[in-house]
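Margin note: ligand = nicotinamide-adenine-dinucleotide.
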Amino acid sequence: MRIAVLGGDGYCGWATALYLSEKGHTVAIADNYARRQWDHELGVQTLTPIRTLAERLRVWEDLTGREIKLFVGDVTDYDFVASLIRDFEPDAVVHFAEQRSAPYSMIDRKHAVFTQINNVEGTLNLLFALREFAPDCHLVKLGTMGQYGTPNIDIEEGYIAIEHNGRRDVLPYPKQPGSFYHLSKVHDSHNIMFACKIWGLRATDLNQGVVYGTVTKETSFDEALINRFDYDEVFGTVLNRFCIQAAMGHPLTVYGNGGQTRGFLDIRDTIRCIEIACLNPAARGECRVYNQFTEQFSVLDLAHMVQKAGQKLGLTVEVEHLDNPRVEAQGHYYNAKHSKLTDLGLQPHLLSDSLLDSLINIAMKYSDRADTSVFLPQVNWRNASNHRERRRPTAVVATY
Ligand code: NAD
Ligand code: USQ
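Resulting structure:
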């Protein structure tokens, strides 16, 4: 297949582009390097020493003989998106190219507005370009489990059958997102569903859980292909953060009581899910929604698992409860369905003790690059404007 990976310089996109290329697909990456720019803005960097995209692609081609085409540009620029679709003529477009940090979107008005414009406008441009130049192309769009929030009923995969006043219908599942970022994904989902309905486009909206891990088979072919490992308070996701905190002897930063439960998946399952979605396209006019995660854990479960794995490696790992900087339920019902991708052949990599050992080992390997001043949260959901300064911790509630 000809597959365009938008956001292919990022964490999920880079691993996906290499995996699809290795599988023999003709792959193109589009990216505007915004993610690298946001690192500069925040004064942070990935734990792993990633190379420039041009170098990564050169090394990949030298090693495998497979070319990945590069389109450098911004998906909020319609001419760029249109020329990408016209020139590359993809069978599938995998759209990762968004601002994906909830804390970034909650810094202040400017960051909230930027996030929603970047994400919603980029997706709208893509929908219009597909309509105009490739109406048969399959859009595989990365959404997020956080769109649903934490309702007190089971979470279905995108749609729910409802009986109301004696009548029945199948309707989009209600959305209760927890940040301006997560809201941008809800807006995208509505726009995609509408475009499928009116123009007969085909789309798969993948509501992905929190991704962990950094190594995939292809990125380990050479050190120059190494993927990102974000651990700062804005872009670092919780398990990656706990692993480097454990490696550095820093208490694990559990927000609140840690009862927040989320769906999680290994990055190796992210790339396989994308492949499954591409190989099994939605029908014309269909907007499918799959919940893309493999296991659910509470934040405190994860902290205890990391603590145990760290102790096995001879590390002293404390768990610290911080005042929760986010506004979110901290003890709630959570049962989200996620069988559609396994029905199509996904065989999950589950979070085991040995996997945790290896995640912490990777964190230890690059720990000389770690900046411990970015461990503590500074972006607070309750503030309209957050001034981020280094080494300004929120209150520690308990340590053990
Ligand atoms: P990332 O920030 O590492 O990568 C996103 C890439 O998109 C970056 O390389 C960035 O430069 C590019 N990009 C952003 N805006 C762009 C624009 N306007 N034009 C062109 N390129 C642009 O993020 P990630 O972790 O790889 O996440 C990828 C996607 O998956 C996002 O849409 C995110 O919402 C979704 N997702 C991620 C996770 C996770 O845990 N990482 C979980 C669920 C969903
Ligand atoms: N958390 C802690 N301590 C930390 C960091 C986070 O307790 O040091 C908690 C948060 O309060 C939250 C949970 O861990 O309850 C998850 O936070 P996170 O930062 O790992 O993930 P989140 O903000 O939800 O965002 C990430 C990705 C985003 C993606 C989302 C999937 O950055 O792109 O959409 O995971 S989901 O959560 O399913 O919506």
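The pocket of nicotinamide-adenine-dinucleotide (ligand 1) is lined by residues 7, 9-13, 31-35, 74-76, 96-100, 118, 122, 142, 144, 208, 210-211, 228, 237 (CB under 6 Å).
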